[in-house]
Amino acid sequence: MKKIIFIYILLVLFCSLSSAQINNLVFEKSECGLKIAYAFQKVTNRYKIPPGSGLPCKLKIDSLPDRCYEIIDAFVWTTLSDSVNRDEPISLMVINPHNKADYYNTVKTGKKGDKCWGELHTAGYRASVKNSITGNGEYIINSNASEWEVDGFFILIIYKDFTDENEGHITIMDGLLTEQAGRSSVDTLKFKPVCDNSSEAYFFSLVSDMQFGYYPEYVMRMNGIDFPVQCNFWNFEMRKSNVFRNQTSSAFSVRPLRNDCYSWVLSGVYYQTKTCRNCYLPTINISAKGSEICPGDSVLLTAEGGYYYEWSSLPGGFISNQKDIYVKPLSTTRYVIKGMTEDSCFKGFDTVMVIVHPKPVASIIPNGPIAFCRGDSVVLMASPFDKNHNALWSDNSNSDRITVKDPGKYSVIIENQYGCKDTASIEIIVFENPEVEILNNNDFRVCLGDSIELVSDKDFVSYKWSTGEIRKSIFINNPGVFHLTVTDSNGCKAYDTVLVKPADLTLSYLNSVDFDSVCIGNNENFSLSIRNSGTDSYNITNINFLKSDSNLKISTNIPIPTNLNPGDSIVVLIEFSPDEIRNYSDSIKIFLEKNPCKEIKTLYVNAFGVPRFQLSIPDTVGFVKDENFCFPVFIKLIAKRNSSLLIDYQADISFDPYVFLPKTSFRIENGKRIVTMSGKNFRVTEEPKLLGEICGLVMLGDSLTTASIEKFDYKNSKICLEVINGNFAITGLCAIKSSRIELLKEAELYINPNPSSELVDISYHAENSGEYKLAIFDIQGAKIYEIIKFKNNNVAEDFIYNIDLKEFSTGLYYVVLFSQDKIIRKPLMILK
Description:
This protein is an all-beta fold. It contains 1 helix and 68 strands.
């Protein structure tokens, strides 16, 4: 209930009147055929009688004509009992009957005090929603305000009816007046002078928040006439009256009959006249030769009564300016013609509806496969087939179904009640039944302890033997009668039956041969004896490996095929020569034959090839007192089919203790210095790869000594190792003086690859101008290659040289770059 506390305080105000502020001119127009349509709905449920719709709100428009009209404008009004202070007007969403949503910002018509609900204030809003109007139907309106705040919605549509010969006039004013405790309000609606008397005048107003009670509950004065009104909270009231020539205003007022709070939103007038303007519409006629068609048909539309014509369609997509048109719509379409006079003035409209009846979608529904075997059949059913559809088959039958046994194309024409037709076709395929024969190479005789193969003479999709097996062939070891049913790719079946009659091949040998790990490149042989331990002689027709692996070979001491009598034996030699690191497994097949019986014995061979490494120290030359001399240790994998291998290793390298003092830790054993190198997950490849370097000081000693690989442990598994020890020569002659050599700068001089074999790319980076000399020296200090480049600017530049090493021997060389301000040296190892 609204606050009662105001009743006593405001009793003295009952008879006083408040001047309304309905002073916003919203719309004013006079035009032939001008009309209005409207709808309104209470939204809030603050006061529950009558119930509000809540949000979103649905408004139904049903008074617009079906055709020949144009929307001039449309507005939506609402009032809010604001519970929050809003700086901006509210926004509305309008969804039209075609489910298209549009969004609008409103204009505030006014803002006043509360209506006794405890709200902050009351505000009125208006939005122009012309873009959403598409005709009759349901319009859904929503707001960004809460449904507690929204009193209701009122929609007013102003349109021009091209078929109406009356002139319509309308004036709409809005604003907002909020009153409490039953105060009355008065206002004067002003409009343009009335052009002539009219008894078809309608005055209207919109008042919010008048609560439901006993009738009447308030009096609405419009055009000076009091109309009692039943309070329905959201009251849009329109009353018929008269207007008189030259009238320019109308008295409006709201007078509650009890203490109630309310808001007055708008007032207006609409009236029609016949004499102020000539709104006569000449006739434009359309004649259609057949306005009901089927999809794909066309119809001729002919217009009469105009000089120029403009054709359009609803739905859109068609335009023409011809008098007569052929149209071929895909769906029911209304064609609109606008006729004009010779001077291009509008003369009139006419419309015609071309109804496109639905075309039946004909189909043939088989009750089974449409491709079947000879002797089968299928029932073809026409669809649709009912009281509105009939069928005509290609065999001239008109029933809903036919039964077919022969191949060919069958079609049906379906015609509906509108005479529209559609055709469906189906291709029937009839497959000839296959033939099958069970074959056997043993004259259908099974050997003792053996089996024979029964096989279908041709390939089929599926097989089913009387044994339950479903393969093309089966092996049986007992005599008896055997049946075969086959199915081809078309699903057709064939049958055959055979009788297998009854017919000792015994061979003694080891079931398997296992070679221990064999190094890559080595050969190992195994001698195997096989003996006829049965009572009958038979032929050994072949002995071979199942796989074609060149690493496993077999030979025999006598030629094969051979006859083997009871107690006789032959020797089979198995040779294993691995060329890659892996497990080798194969099986030897021994083929026995005694007509009509055959048997294959199997011997399994297992072997493993282990890696072979070549560990090498190249010949090197050290210069006496060189503190940074290094000699490398290289490793490579010798395997034809393995390109790399990850290993964990440990290697001991020994040398004369008086010749070389390493920087790393070492030990002395048997008069030799020994350095231990180790690593994990080191990848060994087919190409020589640097395992590590031992660096230190070259001392006085023998002029030639040997650096030896004492031990190499491959922790991953067994290996075969090939060792190449290197000679270590010491000299004090022909050495490039260390005082002119800078530490190697990787960013300035590059050698790739290093070690190299055939070709090497040597590059350097030059920044300053001047002469750059690139030279290669052998281990004796002799210059064997030189190239000079003169640079005449200070722009940074990279120089790359591709050098053919065909004339170079295996060994250690030094690449030296001479420039204006430095000398850079880097070792080059050539391995061939």
